DNA sequence: CCCCTATATTAGCGTTTACTAATATTTAGT
DNA sequence: ACTAAATATTAGTAAACGCTAATATAGGGG
């Protein structure tokens, strides 16, 4: 084993190391997955895919407490998965961009079969 | 606020609650994301997308220790993201099915822009 | 100006997670 | 059978995470 680390393997290693260039970097790519990898946040995303929602409604829909939801929303916003806009008293959240839609939809289409 | 929980919102709530039917359930869907949400596991997946690899090579490519990698591989296998086959002395890992390919590829295509 | 509603923030706590180091298991070659 | 290589497992530990409860901030209406 020790000896058969071929050039092919070396190339894969380099490709990963230089992943900044062909992805936004392994770290940042997996960060997005980590955000979706929490059931409550997943529910939030699924709810927001139906349209813009205020915090209160997100709490109702997901059954989560206000504080917990608010913290999840902050993380999702920091990760640019979700965006917020103020409307008087309240804050309306929505999916940040179409990329998130594609990612989640693809995953959902396939997750039935996993 | 308290009062304006419309039928639309109720429907979203129900849809989430019955998510078993239109996805494999929020829990199981987000579990897959959680698996990909760990940088080391992400590297493993990216490496395996280039082809079948034995544990030793995965360690070399990712720069991880044997024990840690082995534990990640077990989790990935338990989640049916990866499959293993024995070849004499060693164990060769590969991506379990095409769904994983689609999910990861879609995510990577878009993650550049996040 | 005060109060109420909507949202955000903070601190503390228990759980989960990923790592390391050590050990066990399995297989190949001699 | 013995030894060495490849992989798996286990126990212990430190860090990360998500939750709750309490508190803070900000805006709107009387």
Sum up the structure in keywords.
homodimer; 114 residues; alpha+beta; three-stranded antiparallel sheet; 3 strands; DNA-binding
Structural description of this entry:
The structure is a homodimer of 114-residue chains. By secondary structure, the first copy, chain A, is α+β, with helices and mostly antiparallel strands. Chain A is built from 7 helices and 3 strands. A 3-stranded antiparallel β-sheet of chain A has the order 1-3-2. The model of chain A has no long low-confidence stretch (mean pLDDT 90). At the A-B interface, helix 1, helix 3, helix 4, strand 1 and helix 5 of A face helix 1, helix 3, helix 4, strand 1 and helix 5 of B.
Net shape of chain A:
elongated
Question: What oligomeric state do the depicted chains represent?
Answer: homodimer
Mean pLDDT of chain A: 90
The count of strands of chain A amounts to 3
Number of helices of chain A: 7
Q: How many angstroms does the end-to-end distance of chain A come to?
A: 33 Å
What does the radius of gyration of chain A come to? 18 Å
| H and E order of chain A | HHHHEHHEEH
Largest interface, with counts of residues having CB < 8 Å to the other chain, equals: A-B, 57 and 56 residues
Please give the order of strands in the largest beta sheet of chain A.
1-3-2
Structural class of chain A: alpha+beta
DSSP helix fraction of chain A: 55-70%
Strand-residue fraction of chain A?
A: 5-15%
- Residue windows where pLDDT falls under 50 for at least 5 positions of chain A: none
Largest sheet of chain A: 3 strands, antiparallel
